[in-house]
Amino acid sequence: MKNIILNNHLSDEYNALSNNSNHPFTLGGYEWPTVTHYIEAQKFAGTARFEEIRLMVTPEEAEKASENLELTNENTVTRAALIAKLYTYPEILALLLDTNGRAIQDAADPIWNKLGFYWTMIRNEFQNILILESEKEPSNVAAVDYIERHKVIEELRGLPADAFSKLRHLQPEVGCFNRCSFCSQSAGTRIWSLNLNGLQNIFSALKTVAMEKAQQFRTQEGDYYLDPTGPLTLNQRFHPYFEIPKHGLLGYGRLSHRPGVIFPYLDNDISTYPFLKQYIQYAAEDLGVKVRLSTVGYSRHNTQLQNMHDQINEHHLNHVAGVRLSITPYTYGWKNKATRDSFK
Q1: CB half-sphere exposure, 282, CA atoms < 13 A
Q2: Angle at Cα 201 formed by Cα 198 and Cα 205, nearest 5°?
Q3: For the chain, N or C: smaller number of CB within 10 Å?
Q4: Is residue 40 within 8 Å of 49, Cβ to Cβ?
Q5: Are 198 and 146 in contact (CB under 8 A)?
Q6: pLDDT, tens digit only, all 344 positions of the chain
Q7: What is the longest distance spanned by two Cα atoms in the chain?
Q8: For the whole model, what pTM was predicted?
């Protein structure tokens, strides 16, 4: 395969990957005309020269103004700038992913090829994001969704391992349409919920980081919960020979209470979530866990919900770890703002 050669020619197919390309982005509270402006300005952080370089007309000017100085944290600074550029321009991420398997060479730095190294490292980051099993191929995921997943992954990796091994509640929505204050005394009256695209991005990010955390977890016997030496992934999905552990990739350390079962409710009625079928499917296929449901019911005249629950019964019943049906006078509760104590 032919190498990717990066230069500053505007007509070049991969010009957008150059540090000098005209793709402004915001980082650290400032807008930067190019990646070069950002990198060179960091050499003068905390001084008046910082702002002078940021406002220079061309990246060549910025580079010349600091050519005799070096950054001690060059790796961190460069990665931050390139990631910010990708977050701003999904089309550049698509361009980067299109270089799959090809060497990236910076024409301006043929010996050290630092920019080629950084882009290869970042390309690997995005290609290590696990897609959903139902998405089949990495090419079926849009660049903008890879960006959203990458953002969530960055946050999830900062959580302790216990956040995954002992996780119980994983809500796709907050607030309850019933607003009866019966099942949950703290349910909000405003509803926020993930759309299908957001749900897919969350589960993909969870799958990616949960696999990493599970490889670090030790059982009570001192064994690895998930053997890091075995075949785990292939083409950003589970390897054909990979078997999800018995208690899945979430809640497996919660041995005293339903290990491997997650609860998609706390202050919401999950039965009315329009993408509950997909939630249960992703939980089973991509995290290896079952789902426990709780509801006060829904109207059978709502054809969308009725069809969804019919699909769950037909295709995903084995992935449901039980249903708690609250037979309550919730309309009374909604009208009179009653609480559980009113019915004791």
Answers
A1: 25
A2: 140
A3: C
A4: no
A5: no
A6: 788 888 766 557 899 999 999 999 999 999 999 999 999 999 999 999 999 999 999 999 999 998 778 898 999 999 999 999 999 999 999 999 999 889 999 888 888 899 999 999 999 999 999 999 999 999 999 999 999 999 999 999 999 999 999 999 999 998 876 655 555 566 666 789 999 999 999 999 999 999 999 999 999 899 999 998 888 999 999 999 999 999 999 999 999 999 999 999 988 889 999 999 999 999 999 999 999 998 888 888 899 999 999 999 999 999 999 998 876 555 555 566 656 566 55
A7: 78
A8: 0.91
Degrees, nearest 5: CA angle 251-256-260: 25
* Cα 67–chain centre separation: 38
- Sign for the CA dihedral angle at 87, 90, 96, 98 comes to positive
Provide the token pair at 229: 């030496």
- Report residue 263: phi and psi, to 5°: -115, 110
C-alpha 123/C-alpha 79 separation (Å) is 11
SS3 letters for the chain? CCCEEECCCCCCCCHHHCCCCCCCEEECCEEECCHHHHHHHHHHCCCHHHHHHHCCCCHHHHHHHCCCCCCCCHHHHHHHHHHHHHHHCHHHHHHHHCCCCCCEEECCCCCCCHHHHHHHHHHHHHHCCCCCHHHCCHHHCCHHHHHHHHHHHHHHCCCCCHHHHCCCECCCEECCCCCCCCCCCCCCCCCEECCHHHHHHHHHHHHHHHHHHHHHCECCCCCECCCCCCCCEECCEECCCCCCCCCCCCCCCCCCCCCCEEECCCCCCHHHCCCHHHHHHHHHHHHCCEEEEEECCCCCCCHHHHHHHHHHHHHCHHHEEEEEECCCCHHHHHHHCCCHHHHC
Cα(325)–Cα(84) distance, integer angstroms:
47
| Closest listed residue to residue 65, CA positions, set 79, 88, 85, 48 | 48
**Both tokens assigned to 41:** 């300005």
Tokens of 250: 């979430």
Tokens of 87: 């977050």
The CA-atom distances, in angstroms, between 90 and each of 141, 142, 147 are: 12, 9, 7
